[in-house]
Amino acid sequence: MRCSLAHLTLVLTLAAITSMPPAAALAQSPLPVTRSTLVPFDASPFPYRGVVPKTGKPFLDVAEGERRGRNAPRGGVLWEDTTYSDRRVLIVIPRGFDIRKPALIVVFFHGNGATLSRDVRNRQQVPRQIVASGLNAVLVAPQFAVDAADSSAGRFWEPGAFAQFLAEAADRLTRLHGHARARAVFERAPIVIAAYSGGYHPLAFVLSVGGATERIRGVLLLDALYGDHDKYLDWLARKPEAFFVSTYGPLVKLQNEEFRKQLTDRGIGFTTSFPPHLVPGINAFLDVGAEVKHNDFVTLAWSADPLKVLLSRVPGYVRR
C-alpha cells in the first residue's frame, strides 16, 4: 500500500508527540538555569513604625516636616526614606534545584552597611555559595537597614512576623520557580538561617518570637555573636534537635567564650572542633584566628567560601 507524503508526515509527527515527556514532568524536572530576582515583600522587615523593644520608645523618633527618621545608636539621624524603606528581598533558586527531592530554604541576614545587590549578591557572593554547596536549597535574603550602621530588626521584632515573611517567601519562590507544585515544597521546607555580623540581632528575635521555630533546623553565625545571648540560649534549650554553629575571629572572641560558659551553666553541650556533619543537636564553635578580616569573613575565613563549606556539611539535601 502506498501512502501519501502528507499521511507519512502526520504519522511521524504523532509519533514524535507521543514520545515526548508530559509537560508536567518537564516542569518538575531540575531547573536548567539559576533563577534570581530582587522583589518587594509586604512582610519585609522595613518600613517599620512600631517601637524599639528594649526601650519601648518609637523607632522613628525624629521628624523634619513630612520626613521621619531615627536617632541612630552610633550617632546621627538615619532617615526612613533612605534607610528604612527598602522592601526588597533577594530570592535565588539554583540551577539543578529539584522539587522532587528534600529541599531547604537558606535565609541570610546581612550585617551593617550593606545592600542586597552590592554586598550580599556581588561582594559576598552568597547566591554563588548556595549553588556551590551542592544542596537542594534556595536562598531568601531580606534587606534590613540600607547601607547603615544599624542592626535593627524592624518588623522582625514583632511576634509572628517571621512566619508571615516565610509564608510570603513560599509564594514568591513558587512564582520564580514556575510550577504550582513547588508551593507545597516551599511552604514546608526546613529553614537554615545564616547571619553575618549585625545580622545577629534580627536573628535573635526571629528565634525568640518569630513564630516559625518548628521549621528552623539550624543556625549559622559568621562573626556575629555580639549579643542577645539570652535569646540564643533560650532557643537552644527549647530546640535541642537543631544545630548551632558560631564561627568567629577576634572581634567576637570574648562574646563566644562567655556564651560557651553560659551553655555549660545550663548543661548544654558543645564542641570547639569543626564537625564533619551538621546533624541535630550539634553545637559548635570555631575560632578562625586573628588574621581573618571581619569585612571579608563571608568570603574568606578559615577557608574560601565559608558559607558554602558550612552548608555542604548539612546532610540529607543533596542536589546532585
Structure report:
- This protein is 32% helix and 18% strand.
- α6 (161-177) packs antiparallel against α7 and α8 (200-209) crosses α9 (229-238).
- It contains 11 helices and 11 strands.
- The chain has a single domain, classed as Rossmann fold.
- It has an 8-stranded mixed sheet with strand order 1-5-7-6-8-9-10-11, with helices on both faces.
- The protein is globular.
- The chain has 320 residues and is α/β, with parallel strands linked by helices.
- Mean pLDDT is 91; it is low at 8-26.
**CATH structural fold name:** Rossmann fold
Strand order of the largest sheet: 1-5-7-6-8-9-10-11
The total beta strand count reads 11
Residue fraction in strands: 15-25%
- Shape, please? globular
In the CATH hierarchy, what is the class? Alpha Beta
Largest sheet: 8 strands, mixed
Helix content: 25-40%
Give the overall pLDDT as a whole number: 91
Q: What's the number of structural domains?
A: 1
Identify the CATH architecture: 3-Layer(aba) Sandwich
What's the number of helices? 11
CATH superfamily: Alpha/Beta hydrolase fold, catalytic domain
